[in-house]
Amino acid sequence: MRRKEGQMIELAEQFARAFLASDPSGHDWWHVHRVRNLALEIADREHADAYICELAALLHDVADVKLNASKQEGLDRVRDWLERVGEDPAVIEPVMEIIANMSYNGGSNAPMTTIEGQVVQDADRLDAIGAIGIARTFAFAGSRGHLIHEPGEHRSNTKTAIAHFHEKLLKLQELMNTGYAKELAANRHQFMEAFLQQFHAEWSEYREEDRTDDS
User: Fold this and answer.
1) 203, 149 Cβ separation under 8 angstroms
2) CATH for the stretch 3-203
């Protein structure tokens, strides 16, 4: 990595840490740190530009709509910072394109057009599944005041932690872009399925109709 790139990565780390340090929803600095490491690992396997991938991974949640008043406010926050620290426009544009298009958004976003975008999107999605993904799901639900589970929720609009698995997380394995990410996703997906099986088994051990009236 060239000296300027190394300096930019350090600055991006500081910026992301400062913005995300106190986030309780699973979008904290350590999420970003894991995504950065996964992105570098995948980039190496897929021969992507490591610097673009690392910078986009570090900054992606600074722009997240869940942490800003609007999507545009978040994107402006990142672009303004990149311009202020003197990043090359040839780097800013691909980084901003990745950040603007990497969210799940109900699965409706257009496919990533660059290998770097595919790499960073895969890294972010990998951190949303498996054991850490499960932990982040409940952290996010708690931060938003959502229930853990509501029986029959598949027939309602109830937002619960368990509903999120079916609405999004169990779909991510099939949405991975790169071959290596697909390999990594398989084990994490199986772990989530095993967790949900155990969760529902324990939940059904005690049923409302099984209670006795002690009055």
Assistant:
1) yes
2) 1.10.3210.50
**C-alpha neighbours within 13 Å on the C-beta side of residue 194:** 8
So where are the chain's domains? 3-203
d(CA 164, CA 159): 7
| Nearest of 146, 148, 97, 147 to residue 118 by alpha carbon | 97
At 39, the amino acid letter reads A
User: Smallest Cα–Cα separation from 75: which of 54, 98, 91?
Assistant: 98
Predicted confidence (pLDDT) per residue in 69-83, tens digit: 999 999 999 999 999
Query: What value, to the nearest 5°, has the Cα angle with vertex 115 and ends 129 and 176?
Result: 25
- Tokens linked to 53: 């991938």
The Cα diameter of the chain in Å comes to 76
Nearest alpha-carbon partner for 119 in 181, 187, 27: 181
Q: Give the residue carrying structure tokens 């109709």.
A: 209
> Is residue 90 within 8 Å of 101, Cβ to Cβ?
no
What share of the chain in percent tops pLDDT 90?
Answer: 80
